[in-house]
Backbone:
């Protein structure tokens, strides 16, 4: 293998047989021995070829079920491919998700040692780095408490601090940035930039387009186990968004989302007069963001919608919630509902933005129907010499 | 197929998995006794309680132990070793299935989990053996260097446990019935192994068969190391006394290969 190639994947095939009934008892296995089993075959990898150069930051994106996580698991050695080859040149970090192997019954300290060891560190190495890990996680006061008493944010912080200590030259990362508050995300940012500077090879699977455009040198878009498009982030992301928005089968958006799903936001559209592009909005002109909500239950649902606009670095630019305003609250009828957030005074500085939304029941913010982080992204295009988040409507005054 | 280039890395990798085995074993040991007041002592109290019950039943009521020299030590050793066997095999059986989260998300040789689980039990057993030695001293057993003769047999027993665990843990991923079956098997073994009685009380035809079980054979040899030649061992029954050892080796090696063969699919099947 050439020396500057860290990973090469050659004609990889993998399918899962999803049995209609799984035999988990001997009796069932014996009885079914004589029956033909019914399977649904799922193609997770269907002849995939690619290679990753040393020091490259490769993003793998795709809708749910496109085979991207399976791909990562095959690279890590967790799943065995049916056929094809994976060549790894260098030391591979086994960490896929933060917090793997954390045990809630153990103290933070014990967990640092346990998950550090799982990541391939020796006890001595962890001893040496322990203070650094705890300091990075900002956990000094709580380190001897049991992890089950930590908030989820604290757990993630600690897990991430341990994970980045794994000294390997190839890292496989699955969906880290979807968790944590903006403060923590800023920290992740710095670490990612550092890892990149150190020349580590990183394969990154995510739903977050902002993260992809910020870090990745190259992106692979998977669809039904095949490489659909490969190239620079910008062009691949456009293709990905097309896949999401042109979604005629009516399935939901493919982002980090959660909630009861009694109703769901099916589509997000950006509308601006005289502008036909999908999600590029002209600077200083009003626009609206349309949420197409589908009711999946059999009842009407009184609901509220909260929308937040962020810059790519996670800075919140704007937020609004329907029950904060008089005419806000609405009812999702059985047929569904369209809600528009009309931005009359569009002063956002040209650049890339993304939105998060939360659809929740009546006034109770915790009864989430459908919420999504990185739900969709848009760009503001135009010319200005001003910088920051918003144009405050400035002029220069000159007096002598 | 995965290819990793350098052999040096492979040795290093193996070395680092030793750390992992130790860390998981120690963690499981800690977790097992966390939140209970007596902690580790329970692993000692439980076999001791069983021992007391059996001792009372078989000396006061049934007089089964009457002819056996140092019967209390004989019985206690049997109960402790059998306890080790039961705990280690059932713990190891669960070791893969219960760590599904880890297996689905991270790569490391799956065998690490089985070895860790058996080592956790080995730690408990070793501590218990110290108590047995003290107990034997109180019982007036003459403790000489000969008790060190027990060590090779404990190692043999451990290899046997590991071999059986390879089978149990990999089959358990597919068939959860194994759990119940194993319970029944162990109940049968409790009586089919000379724990409560002396082999001398068993008709020779059956005794010759019973002693071929590596479990019975190691228990008898360890007892002999403590109590002396009054304990009947395999060499009293067979001219070629290595049959159980061969059985242990066969189970260990075949179990290892079957486990490694099935391990590739664990992540998908759990």
Residues:
């Amino acid at each position: 293998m050439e020396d500057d190639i860290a990973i090469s994947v050659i004609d990889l095939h993998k399918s899962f047989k999803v049995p209609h009934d799984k035999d988990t008892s001997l009796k069932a296995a014996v009885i079914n021995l004589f029956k033909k089993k019914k399977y649904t075959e799922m193609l997770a990898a269907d002849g995939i070829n690619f290679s990753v150069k040393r020091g490259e930051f490769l993003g793998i994106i795709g809708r749910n079920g496109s085979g991207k996580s399976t791909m990562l698991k095959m690279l890590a050695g967790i799943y065995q491919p049916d056929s094809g080859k994976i060549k790894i040149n260098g030391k591979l970090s086994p960490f896929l998700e933060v917090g793997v192997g954390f045990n809630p019954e153990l103290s933070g300290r014990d967990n640092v040692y346990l998950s550090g060891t799982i990541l391939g560190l020796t006890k001595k190495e962890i001893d040496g780095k322990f203070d650094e890990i705890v300091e990075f996680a900002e956990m000094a006061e709580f380190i001897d408490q049991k992890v089950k008493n930590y908030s989820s944010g604290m757990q993630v912080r600690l897990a991430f601090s341990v994970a980045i200590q794994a000294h390997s030259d190839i890292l496989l990362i699955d969906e880290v940035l979807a968790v944590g508050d903006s403060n923590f995300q800023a920290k992740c940012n710095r670490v990612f930039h550092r890892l990149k500077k150190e020349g580590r090879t990183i394969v990154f699977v995510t739903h977050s387009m902002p993260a992809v455009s910020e870090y990745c040198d190259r992106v692979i878009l998977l669809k039904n186990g095949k490489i659909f498009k490969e190239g620079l982030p910008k062009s691949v992301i456009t293709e990905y968004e097309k896949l999401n928005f042109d979604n005629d089968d009516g399935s939901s958006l493919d982002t980090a989302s959660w909630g009861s799903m009694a109703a769901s936001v099916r589509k997000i559209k950006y509308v601006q007069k005289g502008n036909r592009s999908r999600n590029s909005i002209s600077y200083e002109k009003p626009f609206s963001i349309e949420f197409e909500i589908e009711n999946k239950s059999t009842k009407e649902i009184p609901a509220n919608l909260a929308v937040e606009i962020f810059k790519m670095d996670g800075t919140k630019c704007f937020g609004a919630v329907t029950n904060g305003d008089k005419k806000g609250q609405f009812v999702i009828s059985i047929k569904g509902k369209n809600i528009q957030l009309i931005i009359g005074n569009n002063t956002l500085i040209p650049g890339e933005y993304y939105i998060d939304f939360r659809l929740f029941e009546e006034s109770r913010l915790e009864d989430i129907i459908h919420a999504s982080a990185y739900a969709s992204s848009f760009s503001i295009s135009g010319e200005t010499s001003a910088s920051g988040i918003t144009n405050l409507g400035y002029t220069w005054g000159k007096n002598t | 197929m995965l290819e990793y280039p350098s052999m040096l890395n492979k040795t290093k990798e193996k070395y680092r998995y030793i750390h992992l085995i130790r860390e998981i074993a120690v963690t499981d040991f800690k977790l097992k006794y966390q939140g209970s007041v007596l902690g580790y002592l329970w692993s000692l109290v439980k076999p001791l309680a069983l021992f007391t019950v059996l001792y009372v039943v078989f000396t006061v009521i049934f007089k089964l132990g009457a002819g056996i020299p140092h019967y209390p030590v004989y019985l206690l050793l049997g109960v402790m070793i059998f306890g080790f066997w039961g705990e280690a095999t059932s713990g190891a059986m669960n070791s893969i299935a219960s760590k599904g989260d880890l297996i689905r998300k991270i790569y490391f040789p799956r065998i690490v989990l089985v070895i860790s689980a058996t080592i956790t039990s080995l730690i408990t057993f070793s501590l218990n053996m110290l108590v047995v030695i003290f107990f034997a001293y109180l019982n007036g057993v003459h403790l000489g260097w000969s008790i060190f003769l027990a060590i090779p047999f404990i190692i043999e027993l451990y290899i046997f446990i590991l071999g059986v665990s390879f089978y149990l843990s990999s089959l358990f991923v597919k068939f959860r019935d194994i759990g119940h079956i194993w319970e029944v098997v162990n109940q049968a073994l409790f009586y089919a192994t000379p724990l409560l009685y002396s082999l001398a009380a068993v008709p020779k035809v059956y005794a010759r068969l019973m002693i071929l079980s590596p479990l019975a054979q190691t228990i008898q040899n360890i007892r002999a190391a403590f109590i002396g030649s009054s304990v009947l061992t395999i060499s009293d029954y067979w001219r070629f006394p290595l049959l159980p050892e061969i059985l242990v080796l066969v189970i260990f090696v075949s179990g290892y290969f079957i486990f490694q063969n099935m391990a590739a699919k664990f992540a998908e099947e759990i």
In short: The longest strand of chain A covers residues 5-19. Chain A has a mean pLDDT of 82. The helical segments of chain A are 26-32, 68-76, 108-118, 123-137, 152-163, 182-197, 209-215, 233-245.
